[in-house]
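Onboarding guide, step 5: your first structure request.
Type a short instruction followed by the sequence, for example:

Predict the 3D structure of this protein.
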Amino acid sequence: KFSIGKGKNNIPVILWNHRWEYDKNPDLFFETLISLKKEDVKFLLVVLGEKNKEYPKIFDIVEEQLKENILHFGYCDSLIEYLEWMNKSDIIPVTSIQDFFGISIVEAVANKNIPILPNRLSYPEIFDYKNNSNLFYEKESDFKTKLKAVIQDYKDYKTQIDNLSLELIS
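The system replies with structure tokens like these:
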């Protein structure tokens, strides 16, 4: 009924591959997905990461409210499993409040996930805002609009990602 893998997804797979911490702003990320589901926007979800003793409670809420959308939820037992899920995903929305570099985002983009990035922190420099401004959103209130647009046209964004070069060398 549904095969997952790069270039095969009829429905885009959204990836969360960050720590389960407040500085990654999971409330904005998951509340937006819950809202999009209520609007009948079609997507699947891969949530990677470890549930520590203390974590934002939005993870419990999303595990219940988006259970039909979830392909994987939680810790991967190996690096290979982590990479397999990243390679099956299509979109990496970023809502982080604090990030010094964003290695999980760079990993996902290197694996051809479409980034949706805030126009702040280190992202404009790393992802060359001047040449890729359509991958960025300005304010939290713009995040949902940008994510919905990318979900609905994700195959068109895929061609841009194939040609995206990270600005990691000065």
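Each response can be followed by summary notes, for example: The longest helix spans residues 26-38.
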